[in-house]
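Here is one chain, start to finish.
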Amino acid sequence: MEEIQERHFRAATNPIAQVPATNPIVTPGAFERFIDKWWSGISYFRIVAKEEGDLIQASEPRLVFPFVKMQTFRVGRLQYRIYASSSFENVLKRGLGLDPHQRGPIPEGFHFRAGEEIIKLKVISGDHLFVNRVIYNFRPPRRGEIVVFTSTGIPGIIQDTHYIKRLVAIGGDRVRIGNDRHLIVNDDRLDASSPGFENVYGFKPTDPPRDSRYSGHVNNLTAARFGKPGIAPRFPDENAEPFRVRPGYCLALGDNTMNSHDGRAWGDFPQEKIIGRASFVFWPITDRFGWGYR
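Its structure:
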């Protein structure tokens, strides 16, 4: 499922990653990390270079245990390992400030001094939940519902896994994203009174969009204003030609609009890929725990 992250990057010594000069993440002690991981789904990743060298030979994450992925890489002569939940994409790329969904090797140019942090991340796991696989046998999915669908055969996303997104449009709909972070579907502007969007559009208009917060939906123009250019290539701005959802297809967006790889990038997908509606969240134990997933 989709993970939500709070990312604070180290000061880079390479010319590629443009990152802040300070890292405010404080890694708690072993007991606190244990509670955070198994109760709240929060994981901490911190790897420090033991000697100076270039980052080379980074592998793609691979499944080594049920629900556990491992990724290896080298800095200079030494090899390092990262273990993470199978729902996380590419922790190393995230730590370096790269797009974890982008296929291919890590670019050259990452150099680290001995004692320098290679990655330092605080990662908040996505929801683990039960899926109602029966309901759509009796009626079609509705706008505003959170659906789970298989990624197999959908271009532009990780294959052979499951995604969870909010359904925002169905076949035949014309969709734009306003500069005010509200969807405009068939010339109707959605807001907090629209069924299924009460939380998504419950933000204060004066508050900037933030990672891991309900902030509406940003188009490419708005995203660029707040440091995330290129996140919504199919929705340049509110005056662009509407995106038309193909018949038999649907469009789904993530609620974490500043850190979601969703239909703004890869477009619509066949409705037949939907396997059910999100139901009961059983982990992590947060304010989303329980029935009535919204």
